[in-house]
Amino acid sequence: MPSALVLGLRAAQFAMAMVILGLSAYVANWYNVDTLTTSPSQINWLLFSSLFTIISVAYLELTPRFAPRASHPYVSIALEFCNVLFYFAGFIALSVFISKLLFCRGTVCGAAKADVAFGVMEFLLWGVSAVLMGKDVFKMGFNFRKSGRQAPLEGPQMKESQLA
Description:
Layout: H1 3-34, H2 41-66, H3 73-99, H4 106-140
Helix pairs in contact: 1-2, 1-4, 2-3, 3-4
Domain MARVEL: 7-132
Membrane topology: Multi-pass membrane protein
Pfam family, one: MARVEL
């Protein structure tokens, strides 16, 4: 993948995760402090997803640069697709939750609706980066030498016989 495009995607993913973290924390705090009920699981899921995104972006960007032996393309693509699924589930669940409320007004409701909108944008960002990463990983196949790595459990090279 082009480095500038990936870096831009990662920066946008990190920024959106911070926004979702703030919005979800605000709504969860309102539920836990101002009402008699705990925060909904849909809000808690988006809190988890944003924290998972921060950890994922750190792994995807820092590991290949500073610990390349700990980086594996299949782990990277798994993180990408997990984030896609987490945000898809999160924004769908929260939008259904908001649609079932009897009333929705005030700053908390606005924050929850914004949380859905940012969840959709995060889903799209992770979807684009997952497709780009998947294309690169499956184009590379099992040949890890293109990325400068040795294939795991590779035995010694065979020598030709001197019989002729």
